[in-house]
Amino acid sequence: MSSDRYPFTEIEAKWQREWEATRQFRVSEDPGRPKFYCLEMFPYPSGRIHMGHVRVYAIGDLLARYKWMRGFNVLHPMGWDAFGLPAENAAIEHGVHPAIWTSENIDNMRAQLRKMGISYDWDREVSTCDPAYYKWEQLIFIKMLERGLAYRKRSTVNWCPSCQTVLANEQVEAGRCWRCDSEVTKRDIEGWFFKITDYAEELLAWCDRLPGWPERVMTMQRNWIGKSEGAEFDLPAAGRPELRLRVFTTRPDTAFGMTYAVLAPEHPLVDTLVTDAEERAAVERFRAEVARQSEVERTAEDRPKRGLRLKAHVVNPFNGVAIPLFIADYVLMTYGTGAIMAVPGEDQRDWDFATQHGLPIIETVKRPEGWTGGAYTGDGVKINSGFLDGLTTPEAKRKAIDWLVQRGLGTAKINYRLRDWGISRQRYWGAPIPVVYCPTCGMVPEKEEHLPVVLPEDVQLSGKGGSPLAEVASFVNTTCPRCGGPARRETDTMDTFVESSWYFLRYCSPHYDSGMVERGAADYWMPVDQYIGGIEHAVLHLLYARFYTKVLRDLGLVKVDEPFQALLSQGMVIKDGAKMSKSKGNVVDPDDLIRTFGADTARLFSLFAAPPEKDLDWNDHGVEGASRFLNRVWRFVIAHAEELEMAPRAKSELEERAVAPARPGGAVGGVASPPPTSQEGKAFRRIIHQTIARVTEDIERDFHFNTAISAIMELVNALYAFEGVARDTMPAGEQAALLREAVETVLLLLGPFSPHVTEELWQRLGHGESLFKQRWPTADPAALTRQEVTVVLQVDGKVRGRLTLEIDATEDRVQGLALADDKVRPWLQGRTVERVVVVPNRLVNVVTRS
Ligand SMILES: [Zn+2]
Ligand SMILES: [Zn+2]
Q: How far is the CA of 83 from the centre of ligand 1 (A)?
C-alpha cells in the first residue's frame, strides 16, 4: 500500500457529514426552476450492496450532480423494494422474522450507500413493506376492482415448485422461474389478475414515442405485446355445418392454400367433434402426452410437431373444399382462437407438420427466382388463389377480409400476445389483497377507511402447503364490510412487482397521508427524466410500471402518460468472463474497495472502465489507475494551493460578453481568467476549453462517461506540462492565472465523477461554497477559435507547398517565411524574385523571372 495516497478516508467522511448537515441535496418543488428527476431502480434489500449497485448508483449520481451544476432542481431519491421471497426463505432457514431480516438489511445497505457519498434526498426514503406505503396500493386495487381492471378467475397458470407460488408470464424465461431458475409447471388455480391487456394498444403505441429509451428495450416490449393483424372466420364441419371452427390468421390471403386445419388439444370443440369411444380414447391419450410439455417446448421451432388426425373434416369457405382436421401440440388454446387454418406453402410450422404427416402443400405466392426452401413467408404475387390471383400479398389480404365481411363469414381482427398480469402470490411476505369472502355477499372489497389491511407478524413459515396467511386465524377471520357477518380474508398477497410499479410516484410526496401521491408534487416532478436500471427488467418492471401509471392517470391521480422519459440500461459487472456471483467466487466487495481506495476511486473506475450500456469487465489494474489519477490531481492542487489561491482572477472574455444565468445559491466561484497573450498561453487555454466542450457533450448527449474521463485526464497531463513551461516566455501572472483556470476546470468537470476529493480541493483553493453549487463551466468560443491558418505556397502560380502559421500574420512575416521555405527554395534557384503576392490567410505567390 503506497503511503503517498491522499487521505480519502477522512475526506470522504467529512464531506458525507457536511452534505448531510447542510441538507444540500434535500429538495422541494420550485416552479421557478426547471426540474430534473434522476432515478436508479431501487434495490431489493438483500443485505449487501455489490459492484452492480456501485455501477448503477455512480451513473445516477454523476447525472444528478451534473444537473445540479446545470441549474436544475434535482430530485434524486432512494428506497427499498422490500417485499419478496428471499426474506421469507431466510426466515424459514434461519428462523428470523422477514420484517426483522429486511429491516436489518436495509440498515446495512443504507450505511454502505452513505459511504459512497451519493446525493440522495434521504428524507424521501421509502420502504415498500411499510403499511403506510402499501395502504395506497390496496386502495388502488379496490378502485381497479370497481373498474374491472382487477379480477379473479380460475385458470391454468405458471407455478414455480421451488418458490411455491404462481408466476406471471413475464416472470417465466425459457420455461424457468425468473428468480430461482427452477423449471416452471402448470397449475389450475384461482387467482387475481390485472387487466394489462386493456392497455395493450396504448402500451404499444407509446413504444414509438419514447426516443429516450434504448431501441433494444422497446423492441422487446413490442414483441412481448405481440400485436398481429389479420382475420377471424369460421370453418364449418363437413356434414355438420352447425359446428363451426373459428380460426385466426394473419395471412387471410393464403386461404386457398389451406390443406388441413388444426385445433389445440384442449379446444372444447374437440369433444363435440369426436365420433366414437375409440377416437375419444385416442384423444385422451394425446392430451395426456401434450400436458406433460411446457408451452415453450410445444412452440419450439426446431422440434417435431405431434398431431392426431380426427375423423371429422372441415370446409374451407373460400373454395368449398373439405380438408382434414387435426389436434396438434403446436397450437395453443391461449393464443388467438385456439384453432388455425394450416397453409404449409407459406407457414414454416405448417410446412414442417405437413411434411411429417404427408399432407399436400399448395403454393399461393409466386416464389422468387431460384427459391428452394420450405415455406415462403415473403410477399409476392398471388397464384393458385381464385379471385385473389395476380394481386400482391397486401392487396390480397385486404380483398380476402372484404370478401369474408361481405358474406358475413368473418371479420378483420387484431390479436395480442400479451396476457393479463397474474398478481396473486401464495406467499407471506407481500402486500395483502384487500378483499374478503362472505358466505352471504360473496367477494367484497375492504372498506377504504379500514385500510391498510396490515400483514400480521405472528405467522408460521414453512415454505410448504399454500398461503401462510391462511393459517393465521386472527387475520383470516374478519367481518364482512357489507353485511357485518363473519367472513374470511383473501390470503394471497400481491406480486412485489405491484409495489415497484409506483414507488417513483411516492418519492414525489413520500410523507403525504391523504393519498398515494400529492397531485401538485406529482405534476411538478413527473415524469422521471432519466431512469437507470438493468435490461433484465425490459418486459417485467418496465412494462408493469408503464401500465400502472396509465391506470393511475385514468383514475385521475397523475397527468403523465408515461413514467419514464428516458432510460439508460447499464450492462453487467463481470469478472474472469462471468457475472460476479458468490457461487462463482468472483465477487469484489465494494466495502473492501472503498476501504482500500476510497469511494471516489470506486466510482471513477466503474464509470471509466466501460461505456454504461456495455458489460464492465473488472480488472484490478483499472482500479489502481483510477486511484493514481486522483492522487495526481490531489498532489498538483495541494502543491500549488497557495499560489493558485493568490492567482489573479479577471473576468473571462465569455463572462464579459454574456450575463451568465444566476448560479444556484448565488455562488461566486467558477472559472475566470484574463485572456492570455502568449502563444503557449493561448494553446493551453484552448485545451482547457476543448476539454469543457468534450466532457459536456460526452455526458449530455451519449453517456460516454469513459471518454469524458479520458478528456479530463488529458487536461491534467497538459496541466503538468504547462507548469513546466518557462515563466519568462509569458507576461507576468499569465501562467498562474491559467493554472488556476485549468485546476478549477478540472475540479468542476471531475466533481460529478469523484465528488469528495474534488469538493475538498475546491475548498482548499479558498472557496467558501460547495463545488456542487457552482455552475458547470461553459466552453469559451473565443478560446476555441482556431489560432492558426494554412497558407498555400505558389511559385509562378504553381502550388509548391503549404505553410502553417498564426492567423493574421503580417505581410512581411508571411513573405519571409515563404521565401525561406524548403519546398519553395529549389524553385527559386537561378531566378530572380520579381514580386511576392500575399492574399492574407490564404495564399502566397512568388513571381520570378530568369
Ligand atoms: Zn422459483
Ligand atoms: Zn356479507
A: 15
Q: CA 846 to CA 825: how far, in whole Å?
A: 11
Give SS3 for 728: helix
Å from CA of 171 to ligand 1 middle: 9
Report how far ligand 2's centroid is from the alpha carbon of 471 (Å). Answer: 22
**Ligand with minimal distance to 485 CA:** 2
Assess whether pLDDT exceeds 70 at residue 651. no
What is the pLDDT at residue 649?
A: 61
- pTM score of the predicted model: 0.84
Beta-carbon neighbour count of residue 778 at 10 Å? 17
**What's the CA-to-centroid distance between 528 and ligand 1, angstroms?**
31
Which bound ligand lies closest to the C-alpha atom of 482?
Answer: 2
- Residues 637 and 764: beta-carbon distance below 8 Å: yes
**Pairing mode of beta strands 567-568, 530-532:** parallel
How many C-beta neighbours within 10 Å does residue 198 have?
17
- Å from CA of 494 to ligand 2 middle: 23
789 or 233, higher pLDDT? 233
Q: Which ligand is nearest to the CA of 435?
A: 2
Among all bound ligands, the one having the nearest atom to the CA of 447 is 2
pLDDT in tens, 280-330: 999 999 999 888 877 767 777 777 889 999 999 999 999 999 999 999 999
Residue type, 756: H
What cell numbers appear for 246 in the block?
373459428
Grid cell 450505511 is found at: 111
* Centroid of ligand 2 to alpha carbon of 485 (angstroms): 6
Residues in the chain: 850
Per the DSSP assignment, residues forming a β-bridge with 549 are none
Task: Specify the pLDDT at position 463.
Answer: 74
For residue 184, give the ligand nearest its CA. Answer: 1
Tell me the pairing of strands 421-422 and 185-194.
Answer: antiparallel
- Per residue in 758-792, pLDDT tens? 999 999 999 999 999 999 999 998 888 766 788 99
Ligand nearest 167 Cα, by number?
1
Round to whole Å and give the CA distance between 509 and 682: 51
Cβ atoms 504, 529 nearer than 8 A? no
Beta carbons within 10 angstroms of residue 658's beta carbon: 9
Ligand closest in space to the Cα of 438: 2
